Amino acid sequence: MTTAEPLRIGILGAARIAGLSIVGPARVCGHRLVAVAARSRGRAEAFAAEHGVERVLDSYADVIDDPEVEVVYNPLANGLHGPWNLAALAAGKHVLTEKPSASDAEEATEVRDAAAEAGTVFMEGFHYLFHPVTRRLHELLGSGELGELRHVETTVAMPAPPGSDPRWSLPLAGGALMDLGCYSLHAQRTLAPWAGGPPRLVTARGGARGGAPDVDEWLDAELAFPGGATGSARCHMAHGDWRMSFRVVGSRGEATAVNFVQPHLDDRVLVRTPAGERTEELGKRSSYTYQLEAYATHLRHGTPLPLDAEDALTTMSLIDACYRAAGFPPRPRTALPVRG
Known about the structure:
This protein is α/β, with parallel strands linked by helices. It folds into two domains: 8-127 and 290-307, Rossmann fold (3-Layer(aba) Sandwich); 129-283, 2-Layer Sandwich (Dihydrodipicolinate Reductase, domain 2). It is built from nine helices and 14 strands. Helix 4 packs parallel to helix 5 (105-118).
């Protein structure tokens, strides 16, 4: 699907995820990648040559200031999401940011307020929400086939990245909850329409990375919904294998998305009710493509989006609460150099 006028996208950084998260979807949907900057010009030039970005600029600020850039895509390290999101909003740009949108709830509040003042479209990239896999779980709850919601389990785990990876860096707002657990918590929050309202945190516990006492290697949170359902949200960034499951249990049945975060790898939803068991395959088109398609359609045609800066703030507040309950401090903020 394409829109009447292609989006003009500027990319901050040459992140590995960008090929999957923005380059491929832009190509499929017919949008332009007009500019990129990275930590070094050489990295940016290599990225542009590989992915067909039109121009290489010297700095992130140059991308934001470029008059041809309409949408700023921010896939930088966690600690650089908030400050560069704020800079882009101050420049009057639309923003599509990787999650989480900020380092803590205070910064997410500033982002929310800046987006309102700018009058532009801010969205945190919880791409899974746009894929038919997650939408099917919601449909199964909404149809009544599973009965009333009783329990939710979300697990997002992966083998450990290298020790030098910024996801382990406290100054860059690293940790399992920030990188993985945000999916677990957000997926639970999306069930509010079938659970009497959003969940509240009951308790959380976690384990620290060796040699980094304030950086969580894993964290488990227990939640409660107003309608009586319970939730377990788990994340682990040094697990033995990949696990990204979303299980909903109702009074008359249950359904599990085997890999709700990466449905392009496994698109199965397993359904079990008194009528029997079945496997539904929802398609392996990238969730990032669905996401960019929805974002562009909103910008060009005003079609509603399920995500905004207020939603991002609510998720960040829950992340902070989980950290405190598990004995970790919320993540520190990163200050950008003052521009001359």
